[in-house]
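Lab notebook: predicted structure, single chain.

Context: the supervisor wants predicted structures on file for every construct in the current expression panel, including those that have not yet been purified. This is the next one on the list. No modifications to the sequence; it matches the entry in the shared construct table.
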Amino acid sequence: HTCPVGIATQDPVLRERFAGTPESVVRYLLFVAEEARELMAQLGFRTVNEMIGQVDRLDAE
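Prediction complete. Output recorded below exactly as produced.
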């Protein structure tokens, strides 16, 4: 892994640079997943696979 702040690295030097806790990473990823689920539901999708190829749903401003 090449995570620059040590979240997903096995490099001890980089791991020391990560100031968070494993629980904070889990909480953050769960939050991101929930937000993604809510946005998908607003668009009428239940799964990520359902979104594949749905280019008509893109908004190009």
